[in-house]
Amino acid sequence: MATANSKRLDRKKFFADPTLIGAIVILVIFLSLFILYPLAMLLVDAVSGSDGVNLSAFGRVWNLYTFRNAFTNTIVLGLIVGFGSVLLGLLFAYVDVYVRLRSRMVRGLFKVVSMLPVVSPPFVLSLSMILLFGRSGLVTRTLLGIRNNNIYGLHGIAIVQILTFFPVCYMMLTGLLKNIDPSLEEASRDMGAGRFKVFTSVTLPLLLPGLGNAFLVTFIESVADFANPMMIGGNYDTLATTIYLQVTGGTYDMPGASAMAVILLMLTLVLFLIQKYYLEKKTAQTLTGKASRARMLIEDKSVRYPLSTLCSLVSIFVVLLYVAVPFGALFKLWGRNYTLVTDHFVNMWKMDGLQAYKDSILLSLIATPITALLSMIISYLVVKKKFKLKGFIEFVSILAMAVPGTVLGIGYIRGYSAGLFHSGVMQGLYGTGTILVIVFIVRSLPTGTRSGISALRQIDKSIEESAYDMGAGSGKVFTSVTLPLIKDSFLSGLVTTFVRSITAISAIILLVTPKYLLITVRINEFAEKGENGIACAYATVLIIITYGVILLLNGILRYFDSDHKQKRLARKFERETKALYKA
To answer: Residue 261 in contact with residue 42, Cβ under 8 Å?
Structure first.
């Protein structure tokens, strides 16, 4: 009886809060319109025919050699990249957590290198690989005299994707390694086991679910990647590039493209569900809590030297790739004339470069605060509130993580150039800046939501309940209590959203029109035409912008950080006290 009364009271409070109900309604409409509806239209296109439901499009697509070849290529590439990224991520994570490095600069270099690809445009490494190891490459042609080297194809894409995605594995595995209780490993050492035996018999079994989780995340990223296969893939077609060419090629086979997109979506969705609802839970069950005490770092030269040397070689290679980009913009003709000039930057500005940067920055700045706010609201509702649509909002908001960009782009074309909204206000979205902003929001929403959920779960509910007891509504509690407590997560979401938006290409390349020039699309266009100098000039300025924004917002985070502020005030008080004594 008491439980029934409690539920009735909670329901009464819920319906008495118009801000809460309004937020839920708006979120359900937004998520349904801009995530579920485009995907539903893809499915309708793939299974409908002149005589009703018809699955012939799937059979027709499967009989195409190009599709079967692309499907096989995608799986093979995903497996190679998944294993390679996990191994490289585990190497960096193990060195970071277990090995004592004498040089702080070396440790700092490893961390910077492992983070560089995360905050850089997704195709920069492809461009660098072409400049260094292509037919006119600095290493292959100029230094080694190899004139027919072919970096295009499976090996080129695999190297680039592994270097691009291994930081994701590094970040996931670093947290898991820190949570392993060192007493388990030390007990094995006390029984006479060597370092390698301890790793294979104790550390690795504890990490297995986490390794599987990292593998699937990377596999999904590889399968969904469009920019790198498009730039360095050559004749090695993947599903993402095949779908794009199916729409933009001469055939303009939208039903066929929709069928391909549904197959790719099913593949990534199944992997996402396994990763999200099985391996994540398995990892949490295997590694619970934090280590009971500090770990004794490995100082053995037999372990320290080989591992640090491997990390150093990878780090030097990654740095070399990034350094090649600005030099690619400064050399007159890469591979033949290495005179330093500024012609490529001048030509970039002449070829609508200013408009491309203006459009990209403006649209990204519009999408950034909206995404961060939506992420925090969704996180707040999921963690702090109980209502029937909570599961729907959480699942759909994170679902976009499993949707490849090309699939989403085709869904938007189908949904907002025809579909249910073939006329009226919604149809007017297609070809506008608004649809690009919405795509930026949808693509960045999962990252912000997961970050917000993690931050909110650390806040004691009694803090907010006291505000409710004083008569504050949900809106007031969220803005005055919850948001200030998760401001670090909110500001980090701003950084992530801006970087992801300004460097996005896979979804927007199908939606952008001549009215809007975006940097990533321009880089892709010039790279396809072989004008690598101008492509490097665009990429160089883009990297400067992204890192400038990251440094700016990190400075803001440090300024508002409470511990940092207390230290700053303490130093100020100390200075004033010394001045007073001197006086």
So the answer is: yes
Written as one letter, the residue type at 92 is: F
Chain centre distance of CA 537: 24
Q: Which two tokens stand for residue 245?
A: 């060419």
Q: Are the C-beta atoms of residues 97 and 241 closer than 8 Å to each other?
A: no
How many whole angstroms separate alpha carbon 127 and alpha carbon 542? 14
Question: Rounded to the nearest 5°, which phi and psi values hold at 101?
Answer: -100, 130
DSSP 8-state code for residue 135: T
What are the tokens at 187? 């007990």
Report the phi/psi class of residue 4: left, alpha or beta, with left for phi > 0 and alpha for psi in -120 to 50: alpha
Q: What string of DSSP letters covers 17-81?
A: -HHHHHHHHHHHHHHIIIIIHHHHHHHHHHHEETTEE--HHHHHHHT-HHHHHHHHHHHHHHHHH
Q: How do beta strands 52-53 and 337-340 pair? A: unpaired
Say if residues 414 and 45 touch (Cβ distance below 8 Å): yes
Per-residue pLDDT of the chain (583 residues; tens, 9 = 90+): 556 655 665 566 656 667 778 888 889 999 998 989 988 888 887 777 656 666 777 788 888 888 899 999 999 999 999 999 999 999 998 888 888 887 777 777 877 787 777 667 778 889 999 999 988 888 888 888 887 788 899 999 999 999 988 988 888 888 788 877 777 777 777 777 777 787 778 777 888 888 888 888 888 889 888 888 988 988 899 988 888 888 776 566 777 888 888 888 888 888 888 877 777 666 655 555 555 566 777 778 888 888 888 988 998 899 899 899 999 999 988 878 888 898 999 999 888 888 999 999 999 999 988 998 888 888 888 887 777 888 888 888 888 888 888 888 888 888 887 656 555 555 567 778 889 999 999 988 888 887 777 777 766 666 666 666 666 666 666 667 666 766 666 777 778 788 888 888 888 888 888 888 889 888 888 888 888 899 999 999 998 888 888 788 777 766 665 555 544 544 554 554 445 444 4
- Identity of the amino acid at 235: N
Give the C-alpha separation, 395 to 42, whole Å: 19
Give the β-pairing of 52-53 and 331-333. unpaired
Cα separation, 325 vs 125, in Å, equals 9
Residue where the block lists tokens 């100020």: 572
Side chain identity, residue 72:
T
CA 43 – CA 55 distance, rounded (Å): 10
Rounded to the nearest 10 degrees, the angle between the axes of helix 354-384 and helix 487-502 is: 140
Task: Summarize the chain as % helix, strand, coil (round to 5).
Answer: 80, 0, 20
Strands 331-333 and 337-340: antiparallel
Q: CB pairs under 8 A, 24+ apart, for 197-200? A: none
In CATH terms, 1-53+352-526 corresponds, of 1.10.3720.10, 3.90.640.10, 1.10.357.140, 1.10.645.10, to 1.10.3720.10
> Given the structure tokens 């594995």, which residue do they identify?
169
